[in-house]
Amino acid sequence: MTAEPQPADLRHVDTWLFDLDNTLYPAESGVMAEIERRMTAYVMRVTGLPRDDAYRLQKQYLADYGLTLGGLVEHHGVDPADFHTIFHDMPLEGVARDLELVAAIARLPGRRLIFTNADAFHAERVLKHLGMTELFDGIFDIGSADYVPKPAPATFARINAEHGIDPATTVFFEDSERNLKPAADLGMTTVLVGPYAQASTAAFIDYKIDRLAPFLAQAQLKDAA
Fold it and tell me: Which of 48, 54, 115, 218 could pair with 43 in a Cys bridge, judged by C-beta atoms 3.0 to 4.6 Å apart?
């Protein structure tokens, strides 16, 4: 018989950092697929490339700059604010409100912050749709990072300075393995979230989970929120 996993010991944590997309809602919701489709269409419009070539360029910029936007700014003079407007009417009907997750986050002691490569408008809209607006004390978005995305160490330094974060008492939840490496280097507790988390072999990941709600609901906390 396989032993039940022990609840995570998070009694040292007083700052809770959460990525947004594919972390606070499941990857299978389809939101990221729609985001990708819109980015490809934007690259087509800016460059005049056919769809397949635009898609390849989008992925190349993502690999080279950490965000498609980085390549668009560098090589095509794109205004970041204009770029982000393409996501402001994203359909969110496929994203279900998870009351179990709402309750689990509400019990967390200390500060809860969103740390996202999206812009503030998108983050606020998604949080409202999820019924989580009141659960978070702040949003550190791509604009807050001066459009330098995670996993840039400078962006982690910026959020730490802006919010007075002590990495030793902070946990960061992310669906992207590479975005957790600088957090681990700083001494944060790291949690990889999503359907592929268990397959990760990265030594800097402290916890690998499929879903946030049961993990948070069962975790040992320093006190009740």
Answer: 54
